[in-house]
């Protein structure tokens, strides 16, 4: 029987939502939550012997968390470790990737996780473990389990996986030799002809995408600079007048803070559904530091705090959407003569 | 968002708690913060101390904006 340890967060372990995201690592015997579907999928070939869970905030804020998790996993002497799947949850993706990578490195046994392509954990860990492609929310759990189960069994048995495209996981960047029917020159000409005809074709050697932006020059004179505040932490006027969604935001907000000395729990709140809102709702300056910047403006340290702040909810929000909002925001900031931006994220 | 705004030529400092995510998405100036639900505060502190903590972080961010960088830089101190 193949022994499996499952790593999940406190939510999937049934230990509460965001208000419990600070829970340190713990372990239970057997399976819980998504582990139930996995275990059923193995049809007796493998068994989840224990489940280790940890709050996502705790994991990401405490460097030692991974060591504790690894200790709990090691005691079970597993043949393979399953993490998540994390879908498009960023903190959970980082936690799953960190654990999966540590399992391979420290225990020298295979590991597997699942994520949506825009989860930052994909880029961080796809070369360090097997990350199965999933949908962007837990609604895709059934499909995720279905594609992760056969790969888990193959990995545990030491069988070779097929190509990333055939098996549905993210390329690990490892190249393997294989025989093709046509020689390289013919395949290259075929591809070129397709390209010339405007037809779709699949390259055999995708170029890495360096999606980087050169750093902008530093501001020279802080005392005369206008600084704008932008946040993905979802701070909005109380009541959320523009109805920015708590996850997968379809819009951003722009709000006037002229003459406002400090944000306050009486007038602002967070619309973000991906973190415990208690601290931010009591004092929104903890996410968007209007109070401090207003003081600095009065003291002449900065020239001016820009009249408007921009805000959206960075919780499972599509990269394409965030890009679109920021493009529009950037244009307005330029037009308004803003010299620098402080962008806060939760 | 950081990248799209930075593309306009305006320098952006990203204040966040999970620095590896910020590095992955491509922020150029990064200031690590306190905790995910309260990056610029700590509810466990008395109000005045908490504000001083926030001011320290914002000061660090302003310093980052005044520092020329040619690659991704995390401003720890």
Provide a quick synopsis of the model.
The complex is a heterodimer of chains A (346) and B (77). With 346 residues, chain A is α/β, with parallel strands linked by helices. Chain A has helices spanning 34-41, 56-61, 65-74, 90-107, 120-125, 141-156, 164-167, 184-196, 278-282, 290-298, 319-335; strands spanning 2-9, 26-29, 46-54, 80-87, 111-115, 130-133, 226-231, 235-237, 253-256, 268-270, 304-305, 308-311, 340-344.
Could you give the order of strands across the largest sheet of chain A? 2-3-1-4-5-6
Shape of chain B: globular
By DSSP, the count of extended strands of chain B is 3
Helix content, binned percent of chain A: 25-40%
Overall structural class of chain A, as computed from helix and strand content, comes to alpha/beta
Which stretches of chain A of 5+ consecutive residues score pLDDT under 50? Answer: none
Return the average pLDDT of chain A rounded to an integer: 95
Q: How helical, in percent, are the residues of chain B? A: 40-55%
Enumerate the spans of chain B where pLDDT stays under 50 for 5 or more consecutive residues.
none
Number of domains of chain A: 2
Give me the strand/helix succession of chain A. Answer: EEHEHHEHEHEHHHEEEEHHEEHE
CATH superfamily of the largest domain in chain A: Response regulator
Tally of extended strands of chain A? 13
User: How would a crystallographer describe the biggest sheet of chain B?
Assistant: 3 strands, parallel
Number of helices of chain A: 11
What is the molecular shape of chain A?
A: globular
What's the architecture of the largest domain in chain A in CATH terms? 3-Layer(aba) Sandwich
């Amino acid at each position: 029987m193949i022994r499996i340890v499952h790593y999940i967060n406190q939510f999937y372990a049934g230990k509460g939502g965001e208000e419990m995201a600070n829970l340190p690592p713990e372990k239970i015997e057997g399976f819980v939550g998504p582990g139930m579907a996995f275990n059923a999928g193995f049809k007796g070939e493998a068994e989840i012997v224990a489940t280790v869970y940890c709050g996502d905030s705790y994991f990401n804020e405490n460097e030692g968390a991974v060591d504790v998790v690894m200790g709990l996993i090691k005691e079970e002497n597993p043949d393979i470790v399953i993490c998540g799947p994390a879908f498009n949850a960023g903190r959970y993706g980082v936690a799953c990737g960190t654990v999966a990578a540590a399992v391979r490195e420290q225990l020298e046994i295979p590991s597997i996780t699942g994520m949506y392509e825009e989860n930052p954990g994909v880029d961080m860990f796809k070369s360090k473990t097997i990350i199965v492609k999933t949908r962007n929310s837990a609604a895709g759990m059934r499909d995720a389990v279905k594609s992760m189960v056969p790969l888990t069994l193959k990995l545990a048995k030491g069988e070779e996986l097929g190509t990333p495209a055939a098996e549905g996981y993210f390329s690990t960047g490892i190249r393997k030799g294989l025989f093709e029917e046509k020689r390289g020159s013919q395949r290259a000409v075929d591809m070129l002809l397709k390209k010339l005809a405007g037809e779709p074709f699949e390259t055999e050697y995708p170029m890495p995408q360096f999606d980087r932006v050169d750093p902008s020059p530093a501001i020279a004179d802080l005392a005369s600079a206008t600084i704008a505040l932008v946040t993905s932490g979802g701070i909005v006027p109380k009541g959320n007048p523009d109805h920015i969604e708590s996850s997968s935001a379809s819009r951003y907000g722009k709000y006037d803070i002229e003459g406002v000395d400090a944000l306050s729990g009486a007038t602002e709140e967070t619309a973000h559904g991906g973190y415990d809102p208690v601290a931010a709702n009591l004092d929104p300056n903890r996410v968007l530091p209007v109070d401090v910047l207003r003081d600095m403006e009065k003291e002449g340290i900065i020239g001016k705090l820009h009249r408007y702040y921009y805000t959206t909810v960075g919780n499972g929000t599509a990269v394409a959407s965030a890009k679109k909002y920021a493009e529009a925001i950037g244009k307005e900031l330029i037009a308004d003569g803003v010299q620098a931006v402080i962008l806060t994220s939760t | 968002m950081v990248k799209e705004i930075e593309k306009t030529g305006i320098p952006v400092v990203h204040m966040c708690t999970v620095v590896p995510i910020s590095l992955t998405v491509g922020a150029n100036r990064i200031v690590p913060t306190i905790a995910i639900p309260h990056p610029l505060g700590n509810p466990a502190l008395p109000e005045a101390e908490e504000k001083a903590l926030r001011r320290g972080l914002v000061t660090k961010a302003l310093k980052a904006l005044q520092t020329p960088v040619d690659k991704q830089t995390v401003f720890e101190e």
